[in-house]
Amino acid sequence: xxxxxxxxxxxxxxxxxxxxxxxxxxxxxxxxxxxxxxxxxxxxxxxxxxxxxxxxxxxxxxxxxxxxxxxxxxxxxxxxxxxxxxxxxxxxxxxxxxxxxxxxxxxxxxxxxxxxxxxxxxxxxxxxxxxxxxxxxxxxxxxxxxxxxxxxxxxxxxxxxxxxxxxxxxxxxxxxxxxxxxxxxxxxxxxxxxxxxxxxxxxxx
Length: 205
Hints:
Helix content is 30%, strand content 31%. It has 205 residues and is an alpha/beta fold. Strands 1, 2, 3, 4, 5, 6, 7, 8 and 9 form a nine-stranded mixed sheet that branches. A hairpin with a 6-residue loop joins strand 7 (123-135) and strand 8 (142-153). Residues 10-23 have low confidence and may be disordered.
């Protein structure tokens, strides 16, 4: 009788353990986001259109912002990344088409091309992504986007102008998606400011 009890107990243990192995395990799904807010049409006050071609290079990201991780800050100088929320690509790659599109919408240059490009161009616009982070330093979180833009005249290699731009946008929600919405607004405003800066520095021809 004892042997039968032991055998029955072993069977129940096996069934229980097997059931645990086969039971579905809830794994947090990963969410991916992009920056594709359509650029607003930019009206350029200059009547003449430049005959120059401008080459827009892919933004170079500073350390800490080179991957597709979504960065947030709880205390100054400490960068953290959301576990289950990412950009579909590194932000520097997402910003390139936004900048090129807004330059084209300005209708100021003869052509706007992006790297890689093997043809000839009059100017090159280099940008650097300095910061893109959601800051939880106040009751309402904010997105901080900082970029440096450098305009180069390719005929002589001289730097025409260089400037640092910063946009801070409050997030409507203190969560990753609230940061995504604010980042899209910040990116659109950033591209708008850079385009205005470039057009102002390139003379009519």
